[in-house]
């Protein structure tokens, strides 16, 4: 601790952030003390301090001892794998589009990653689901989900998974609040945005990543360099292109057999988030950047399934603020006299602007498009 304090004395926050964000591994954090709010405050503070360091210095971390049984996390991945093996015309019965409020199934290549001057189609297929709220004013994303009813067991396991993830999200956010020196229920209070397991406008994606390799099982040259950890041109097709997430907190449940998720450090090196059985890989999104006035930064990440013989399934769950939450820098975190770097953002408007940009749903003419 002393070493760090000396090393950064008199240096700018930017210098500090650069030095610390050259991580080579992702921290693993035991959150058992946060899962039950009645746990020992010393243990809670320990977990909270680890979360604070991870959010500030990495933006990514694993959580373990989160209380969700393996039968739930493994079961939903197995069900997803079964569903994605159904014939295309069956999967299209729940096709996503403007009429379905961007909820439902998107076939391979419909999801895109945009960059200056164009976009690239991501090499995955997915089902997108959101919190369902019947009595809402119109919005492009409000509506009811297209659940994968063709396999009732999948729908049931997804619904159970949502309930479990809402609990984990709430526990982690309790730790994030404590780690910032705020009351544990800060983000649940009206002042902190009112994000509870009931009000969170959660988002969930069940994603199937077929092998990225071309005919003969070989990856393109640039994609192969990316697998080895290189930064590549944005037009190179990946399983999911480089991006950051939009909300508070993402929890990724990934299959154990393929290391595919990569996280970028401040030196431009890509660090693989190796699957750790029994863990969620967590990362922070834009809303925590605003709340902390930039102290926490969402970290860029991407996915590459380089295995020529096997596909990969993951189910990211996004624990988000309430749709109407107005998110702004938290006054108690601003040193006296500091001007906030960000104004107030409506989470729902931010989400809509991102979702409406995520798809190119018409048939594919070529793999690289013009924006
Ligand atoms: O599949 C993964 O491991 C991560 C997916 C992801 O980053 C996302 O959906 O935002
Ligand atoms: Fe992501």
TrEMBL record:
<dbReference type="InterPro" id="IPR005123">
    <property type="entry name" value="Oxoglu/Fe-dep_dioxygenase_dom"/>
</dbReference>
<dbReference type="InterPro" id="IPR027443">
    <property type="entry name" value="IPNS-like_sf"/>
</dbReference>
<dbReference type="Pfam" id="PF03171">
    <property type="entry name" value="2OG-FeII_Oxy"/>
</dbReference>
<keyword id="KW-0408">Iron</keyword>
<dbReference type="InterPro" id="IPR050231">
    <property type="entry name" value="Iron_ascorbate_oxido_reductase"/>
</dbReference>
<keyword id="KW-0479">Metal-binding</keyword>
<dbReference type="InterPro" id="IPR026992">
    <property type="entry name" value="DIOX_N"/>
</dbReference>
<comment type="similarity">
    <text>Belongs to the iron/ascorbate-dependent oxidoreductase family.</text>
</comment>
<keyword id="KW-0560">Oxidoreductase</keyword>
<protein>
    <recommendedName>
        <fullName>Fe2OG dioxygenase domain-containing protein</fullName>
    </recommendedName>
</protein>
<feature type="domain" description="Fe2OG dioxygenase">
    <location>
        <begin position="199"/>
        <end position="321"/>
    </location>
</feature>
<dbReference type="InterPro" id="IPR044861">
    <property type="entry name" value="IPNS-like_FE2OG_OXY"/>
</dbReference>
<dbReference type="Pfam" id="PF14226">
    <property type="entry name" value="DIOX_N"/>
</dbReference>
């Amino acid at each position: 601790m002393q070493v760090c304090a000396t090393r950064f004395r008199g240096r700018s926050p930017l210098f500090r952030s650069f030095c610390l964000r050259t991580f080579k591994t992702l921290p693993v954090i035991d959150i058992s003390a946060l899962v039950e709010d009645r746990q020992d405050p010393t243990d809670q503070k320990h977990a909270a301090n680890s979360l604070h360091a991870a959010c500030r210095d990495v933006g990514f971390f694993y959580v373990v001892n989160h209380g969700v049984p393996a039968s739930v996390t493994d079961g939903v991945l197995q069900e997803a794998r079964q569903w994605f093996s159904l014939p295309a015309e069956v999967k299209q019965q729940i096709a996503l589009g403007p009429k379905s409020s961007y909820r439902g199934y998107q076939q391979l290549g419909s999801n895109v990653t945009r960059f200056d001057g164009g976009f690239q189609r991501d090499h995955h297929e997915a089902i997108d689901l959101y919190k369902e709220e019947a009595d809402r004013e119109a919005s492009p994303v409000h509506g009811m989900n297209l659940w994968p009813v063709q396999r009732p067991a999948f729908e049931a396991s997804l619904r159970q998974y949502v309930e479990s993830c809402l609990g984990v999200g709430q526990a982690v956010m309790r730790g994030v609040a404590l780690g910032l020196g705020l009351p544990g229920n800060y983000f649940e209070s009206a002042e902190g945005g009112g994000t509870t397991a009931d009000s969170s406008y959660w988002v969930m994606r069940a994603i199937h990543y077929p092998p990225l390799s071309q005919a003969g099982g070989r990856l393109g040259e640039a994609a192969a360099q990316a697998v080895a950890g290189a930064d590549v041109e944005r037009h190179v097709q990946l399983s999911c292109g480089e991006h950051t997430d939009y909300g508070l907190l993402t929890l990724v449940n990934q299959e154990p057999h393929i290391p595919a998720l990569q996280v970028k450090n401040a030196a431009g090196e890509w660090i693989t988030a190796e699957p750790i059985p029994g863990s969620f890989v967590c990362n922070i999104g834009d809303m925590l950047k605003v709340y902390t006035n930039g102290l926490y930064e969402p970290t860029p990440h991407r996915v590459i399934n380089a295995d020529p013989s096997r596909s990969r399934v993951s189910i990211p769950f996004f624990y988000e603020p309430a749709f109407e939450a107005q998110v702004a820098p938290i006054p108690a975190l601003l040193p006296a006299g500091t001007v906030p770097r960000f104004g107030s953002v409506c989470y729902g408007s931010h989400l809509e602007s991102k979702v409406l940009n995520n798809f190119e749903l018409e048939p594919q003419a070529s793999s690289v498009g013009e924006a």
